[in-house]
Structure formats: C-alpha cells, structure tokens
Amino acid sequence: MTLSKQERKVAAGFVASSLAPAISCLVTNPIEVIKVRQQIDQRPGGMTATMRHIYLTDGSLGLQAGLRMAVVREASKAFFRIGLFDPLLGQLHDPARGSAPLYKRMLAGMTSGAIAALVCNPIELVKTRQQAGHGGDKFSGPIDGLRKLHASEGVVGMWRGTGVSMIRSAAVTGPHLTTYTGVKDLFVRKGWLNDAPPLHILASLAGGLTGILCNHPIDLIRNRLYDQPVAADGRGLHYTGAVDCARKLVRAEGAAALYRGFMAHYIRVGPHYVITFTILEQLKRILVNDRADQDGPS
C-alpha cells in the first residue's frame, strides 16, 4: 500500500519522535539521575556534591541508574508527546490559512503532553524509583520493573500520581513546543537563519528553558509523590496528594525548595532537546524524503 505524502509525514513524525529522544537519553541520563536525587533528598547540596555522593555510594554505574527504563520512557512518552503535536495542531488549524497562532500551538502541546503522561505513567514511576537509588527498587529490566510494580501495588498503584504527572507534562510540552516552533517560524520568516541545525539548536535551548521554568515545581512534587512509601492499602505515607505535598514542602524547606535541582534539570534538558530535535529533524526528512519546510516540532 502506497502512502500519500501527508501520511508519510505523519508516520515519519511518530517514528522520529520516538527514536530521537531515546538516542539522546544515552548521553543525558546521568544529569537526570542527579536532578532526581536533588529533588528527592532533603539535604542541601549542588550538582557536584550530589554527583560525588552518587559515585561514592553507588559507583560510576549509579550515574546511569534506570538507563534502560529511561530509554523506554523517552521512546514511549515522546511517541505521544511530540508525535501527536502535528496531527493535533492540524485539527486545530488549517495550514492553508498561514502559520498557526501561539494559543493553538499551546493547546496542541498541552494536550499531547497530557495524553503521553496518562499512557506512560507506570513507566515513569518505575524510572523515577530506580533513579532515586532505593535498594528495594532493583529491577532486571523494564518488564521486570512493571511486573513487580503491578504485583506490589496493583493496577491503581501503577497510575499513582497520574494527575500531577499529566499537569506536569502539559506544563512542559505546551510552552516547550510553542516556543520551539514559534522561534523557528520567526527566524525563518525574518530571514535570520535557515531551517537547519543551527536554528534547531537555538530553538531547542529556548524551548527547553521555557518548558522547565513552567514545570519544574510540578516535576519536583511529582517525584516526591512517586518516591514516597505506601501503606498496604495503597495510601501514601508522607503525602495525601499534590497539594498536600506542596504545602508540606514549602513549610519544611521554604518556597525556594520548589526549584531545587533546577540547574541540573536545565543542564539535562538543554542538551537533551538539542540532540533530540537535531536528530528528529533529520530523521523526518530522511523518512519523508522531503526537505520542504514543515510546520510543527520539526
């Protein structure tokens, strides 16, 4: 069966959206481990101190904790988070009417981000617990991790924290993809840069910064909820929910704690998005065999 050009573009978008971040994750996972440890540990300390603590307690392999699960998480979540953006935007805006306004891009990005978080929550939960470095959360692989999670906490437990995770994913994906595509369109339209890797790098850094500024406090709260121990009936022993977690966090550690690990977050996200979207752009063009300009996260 022969696919039309538009169908090839949609299919290529999903494939590239899954492969590119999985490849990028191989490079940036150690920074993600440091970020998660900083968010979960209540001891003060910068990136260097946290890296040293991980190395001393877990060895060099500790910096790649949860790597296999992280790769699976990136490939699966980005399949929906990035892959759905273009199709959703196409439903909200007719390209024949010109460039999509920012509010439509924001709506498409927030929707695709929320869908990705809902579908992939069990994977995210296992990944976070592995990277937190708890001895009891040792898995031989992604399937083993999901199987043990289901055995110990049931189906309901596999979707623990889904609400805050969906809000978190929407809060990062909407601003990120809106900024990324907006910067690309602006620079191409003004003739400042061509639609090529230098522009992709600039747009990735801008989009990543916007995204994590909006979502970092939510990301931290979500990780605290994921990491807390649970009672036999599945109730969290430290927090009853996201609001309770935020209130206790601010009361015990101050409002600045909501941005603990921010630098590690951006140092991880910046290079991750640069590698991801540079690879993604080229993959889409190879798969579609078309170097025409594309409207979307491309």
Keyphrases for this structure?
298 residues; mainly alpha; globular; 0% strand
What is the chain-wise order of helices and strands?
Answer: HHHHHHHHHH
Shape descriptor reads globular
**Helix-residue proportion:** over 70%
Number of helices: 10
Terminal Cα separation, in Å?
26 Å
DSSP E strands, number:
0
- Radius of gyration, in angstroms, nearest whole number: 19 Å
Biggest sheet overview: none
User: Which parts are unreliable, with pLDDT below 50 for 5 consecutive residues or more?
Assistant: 291-295
What is the residue-averaged pLDDT?
88
Strand content: under 5%
Question: What class do helices, strands and sheet pairing give?
Answer: mainly alpha
Task: State the gist of this model.
With 298 residues, this protein is mainly alpha-helical. It is 73% helix and 0% strand.
Layout of secondary structure:
Elements: H1 5-40, H2 47-58, H3 67-81, H4 85-92, H5 102-132, H6 142-158, H7 162-190, H8 197-227, H9 242-253, H10 262-288
